[in-house]
Amino acid sequence: MEANGASCEQPQKRTGARDKQNGKSADLSIRERRQKDKEERLSLVLWRRPATTLHYFLLETIIKLKEWTLKLWQRRGAVFLFLLLCCVFSIAYYTEGRHQQYVQYLEVKFLWCAYWVGLGILSSVGLGTGLHTFLLYLGPHIASVTLAAYECGSTDFPEPPYPDQIVCPEGETVEGSISLFSIMSKVRLEAFMWGAGTAIGELPPYFMARAARQSGADPDDDDYEEFEEMLEKAEGAQDFVTRAKLGVQHMVQKVGFFGIMACASIPNPLFDLAGITCGHFLVPFWTFFGATLIGKAIIKMHIQKLFVIITFSIHIVEQMVSLIGSVPKVGPSLQKPFSQYLEAQRSKLHHAGGSAPADDNWLSWVFEKVVLVMVAYFVISIINSMAQSYAKRRQQLRHSEEKTK
């Protein structure tokens, strides 16, 4: 009897081992297929396949417009209320009366805040890329206000939104009346709004992962697939990047609100992973968004603001220009345009409508070209990303048809 029992157990073990091996082979084939599909999508870029990329981009744009139209129709009550409020504000805007001064004030403030919130969202979302709007817009804006405050000896120039040129106020100024805190107060509104925009831009990964976890379906996002693979191989992780991602994931999962706020408060390229983690583990929306808003719009923005203000304080700038001049051979030739640029900016502050000579303004020309290149790269990246998104739709449709056959 024992021999018969042993002989029965052996085929069962072999069958179990075979099933396990088949399961591993199936998982391997799925991963190989995903990798192949991913490589095929990544090859879909404008400089390699321009016609196909543009064609897929247009098709994805049409699909997105249909999806957004359907979502708006499903929320037609909120849309109707929004349109009604717009009508009320339009009537108030075009009707003459004493209320016009308040309407105009609210209009100016709203457009100013919306401008910085929009730049923050662009910096954070970017449909797979990002426009570095802090380096291109907010950082230079804080720097210009800092230089103006030290040159004018006051922060009493016009309230934001500023005119085309910041002009020093007339009259005598008190020496030494400028402090870090007065400059920080001057740029607080635009800095907070930009930070709030970056916090809003972190919501798509959170909602994507949350919807995927609740529905049990495979999400249409490569970052989520990478997140799941990272969780599978968490124990044997050795490389720095994987351990850093795991550190973010553990901090968010275990510490909760304060872990999310800590991750959002420092320059953190892995914060998308924090949003995916919060969505995957069904962290409440206001816990995630509240911590992200405090971290990005208050703590992180004060750190970045302080860094820019200290860097562009007038005595530090003058020391930097003098250090450039001390560079052997090329120093004096490099120092001259920087000195001329600073003098031109100072003259602008004291004379409304002043401008730098065309020959000495090559730094502004270079900066404008850098902005144009960054914006062009941003637009091209969006086109590539949307084309790749449509290619992924086609791949998923093909795989689902293969399964049904």
UniProtKB/TrEMBL annotation:
Keyword Magnesium present in the record's keywords: the answer is no
Q: Name the keywords, alphabetized.
A: Membrane, Transmembrane, Transmembrane helix
Q: Does this UniProt record's set of keywords contain Membrane? A: yes
Q: Which residues cross the membrane?
A: 78-95, 115-138, 251-267, 273-294, 306-327, 370-391
Region span, Disordered? 1-30
Its recorded name reads Vacuole membrane protein 1-like
- The organism encoding this protein is Echeneis naucrates
Q: What is the lineage of its organism?
A: Eukaryota, Metazoa, Chordata, Craniata, Vertebrata
